[in-house]
Amino acid sequence: MARGLNKLTAISVRTAAPGKYSDGGGLWLFKRPDGGGQWFLRFTIHGRRREMGLGSVSDVSLKAARHAADAARTVARANKDPIKERDRQSREAASSIHLLKDIALDAFESRKAELKGDGKAGRWFTPLELHVLPKLGNIPVAEIDQKDIRDTLAPIWHTKADTARKAMNRLGLCLKHAAALGLTVDLQATDKARALLGRTRHKSQNIPALPWIDVPAFYASLDAGSVTHLALRLLILTGIRSGPLRFLRQEQLDGDIWTIPGEAMKGRKDATPDFRIPLSGEALAVIEQAQRHARGGYLFPSARKGVISDATMARHMEREGMEARPHGFRSSLRDWLAETTDAPHDVAETMLGHTVGGTVERAYRRTDFLEQRRILLERWANHVTGNSGQVVALLRGQSS
Hints:
Phage_int_M, single chain, 10% strand, DNA polymerase, domain 1, 400 residues, Double Stranded RNA Binding Domain, four-stranded antiparallel β-sheet, 3 domains, elongated, Tyrosine-type recombinase/integrase, hpI Integrase, Chain A
């Protein structure tokens, strides 16, 4: 037995009066007046004297306290702080109980404010919910590695490349979120998984579109005055994406101008200017009819709550036996512009809300071609309503 160690006995620990008693080697017993007591270890590390609690006498025996003290001294001899090492081990142990499904939900909640509509559409979380969490959701996030990710996404990596890409990106954000919470995770796991999966072979397919020559017949069939019919009519007349149209609010309308907030436009940032759409006479007539259905400030509400969905418009076209989809009307308009007008490229692309030119070019070009687009959209309205098939010649030098 080393000199100065193991001074106490099990009996002396049990019968000791209130006070502090040394067992040697820095191990101490503090006995309280109520009969209870506490073990603690005194040690010096990096020139600082510290005290480390080892538990109560009711839970930790003298023998166990000595083992704990020996382990802590070994850590200190390695020039490490036993208290910090114990805390680190506790964090690592705790990280094993944080399941990916819980981390994913927490990451989603923390990002809602920066997502369009607070993420209510579900587009951020859906790739995880459908393709990742069913297999990895109940696994501790600290245990997930590139092989787990590869095996999870391999079935859709080539067949649903865009969905797989989104799922991989969301999973990477979840791992970063876990790391920010202090959990031990492999932040390179998604990059390693991509390397294992290889490049996708899937080729993206264009959304089926109705030929512009056939648009008038379909437009004429939308004559019920329902929310679905009116939404499809305005979608055709403006060439806008369905998202901004479905969330159209009364306050966005000012005369014959519809102003869409910049953050609501796909691929645009909060600092991007709002996007103005000149409304043709036919578009204004459609909006007037839609006013009868307005609810909660939205012109195209759903039957239950919120606004009409893109799927509702798509299902109507499916029931009509059409392969084309609502988004395809943007292609119909673009083809009409290319084949029947002399509209400059910049004007035609701006009509679809596309960003045209580089950063410097956009900084110097202050026009949004509003008046040129007004003329073209009026002609387009004449075409889709069957009133005109004339070719438009737009002067390239004209500006708003």
